[in-house]
Design a protein that fits this description.
It is a single chain. This protein has 169 residues and is α/β, with parallel strands linked by helices. The chain contains 4 helices and 6 strands, in the order ββαβαβααββ. The strands form 2 sheets. A 4-stranded mixed beta sheet has the order 1-4-2-3, sandwiched between helices. Strands 5-6 form a two-stranded antiparallel sheet.
Length: 169
């Protein structure tokens, strides 16, 4: 979940998510967010509509948003350098355009460090700063169970579904 800095108590929060119909993740998110802190309008929409709306930087009353309910694979989030939710370089950042010079300085220090213990300290500092400034806030983890028919060979085990190299025995 990404939250614009304007998403503070007593603010209107427009949440967008790419899941039309029954949307259990968005409903859970809304339960957490609506614990008396925010007035939330949850908008579940089809993928192409969400892609268009998420690119808008307009105010809420002009089709903008301030909360994006989304997810990523663990592989994308292993490093502060590849973790696109914590990139805080303003207009160059991922959707939500998180902007925090302190996070960017910590990420640069992490990238330049060759000491694993120091990188761990910097990673923890990055997390604290990101959570303190509501740039990104994870609400949980989930596993997508996957099963393949025993008659298939060449299946590549990966955090995301890869459908090449598969053959029927």
């Amino acid at each position: 979940m990404l939250i614009y800095p304007s998403s503070f108590p007593e603010a209107l929060c427009v949440a967008i998510a790419p899941f039309p119909g029954v949307n259990v993740p968005l409903r859970r998110c809304m339960r957490v967010m609506t614990s008396g802190l925010l007035q939330v309008i949850a908008l579940a929409m089809d993928w192409s509509t969400m892609l268009t709306r998420r690119a808008k930087k307009d105010p809420i009353d002009q089709g903008g948003w301030n909360l994006l309910h989304t997810w990523a694979t663990g592989a994308d989030l292993l490093s502060p350098m590849t973790h696109f939710f914590v990139a805080a370089n303003c207009d160059k950042a991922w959707f939500g355009w998180y902007c925090d010079p302190k996070v960017e300085e910590l990420r640069e220090q992490w990238a330049r460090s060759t000491d694993a213990a120091r990188q761990k300290q910097l990673g923890e500092a990055i997390q604290r700063q990101v959570y303190a400034t509501t740039g990104y806030y994870p609400l949980g983890q989930f596993v997508l169970p996957t099963a393949y028919n025993a008659r298939l060979s060449g299946v590549i085990v990966s955090p995301v579904a890869i459908f090449w190299n598969i053959q029927k025995k």
